[in-house]
């Protein structure tokens, strides 16, 4: 069985943070979103991974994952380019998969048992979760143990069971995709393809996720994913240099970082080569690689790479790569894109 991880798409809702790379590579709790996916797939025993590349700096994805050996898997890359829809992306693996395969949207994090999900016996299987805002998702109507209808981004309520970004397919899906027409948003929808299977009399199974999961499509989603993953996976692991500081609880500090005269209260992740001086880093915060934080306080935030923070007090904030933020008020909430310079 192969797993296909999608790395295309526009990333428009995250745009100030996705100018120089795809959204799937935004790092939460110390790893790119799609690395959490990839490791989950590997830990379920699937070793053949196909990554679909889009047109937003796809070389970044190839540079990061390489041939997959660093992660204990084998990766094949397929170029989709422009985002023509999930079904268009899936169709591109037609000659690369065996009869059953999994598709996982690379910007979703769904901590669900994939070995249980991958044992399906119908033409396709979907993962569903109850949501409050079904119009943001594809949704499914179920009757008994069968899926009877699917609609992408319904304008009127038909179900609050959303498709989360994990699908199980057999090769039967390719024939249906060949007959699809673009939807109102100009895309070949995977939801329509699954509906096509049902229309042809095939069975589609489902499983329900009752725990936490996230489509990391917006800054708020990124912050929530970061907190969840830190809460669940952070361990105490201190590799950097600590001077006159108090490091409490589950704090991960990577090599070549220096923490000086500061308080760090976990769960927290601090990347390689970052310097924290005269500061307080509070729970649920991830700081990227090569950042400098001075005379600042931070809680519940994601700071990406090469960021300089001086004299700021922030919470619920997301700061993009290579940005500089200085002199803020107390506990401000900031969403700042890449390469920005902000003096508050
Ligand atoms: C359209 C398109 C997307 N992608 C990638 C980008 C993302 O990682 C992922 C999802 O794309 P988005 O455009 O964000 O899809 P989104 O509007 O959130 O909706 C999808 O994902 C939802 C779950 O998050 C489902 O409920 C929907 O049925 C499904 O259509 O697939 C590709 O690789 N190629 C594409 O052509």
UniProtKB/TrEMBL annotation:
UniProt domain Nucleotidyl transferase: residue ranges: 3-231
Matches recorded under PANTHER family: GLUCOSE-1-PHOSPHATE THYMIDYLTRANSFERASE (PTHR42883), THYMIDYLYLTRANSFERASE (PTHR42883:SF2)
UniProt xrefs under CDD domains: G1P_TT_long
Domain of life of the organism encoding this protein: Archaea
Species classification: Archaea, Thermoproteota, Thermoprotei, Sulfolobales, Sulfolobaceae
Species: Saccharolobus caldissimus
Protein name stated in the entry: Glucose-1-phosphate thymidylyltransferase
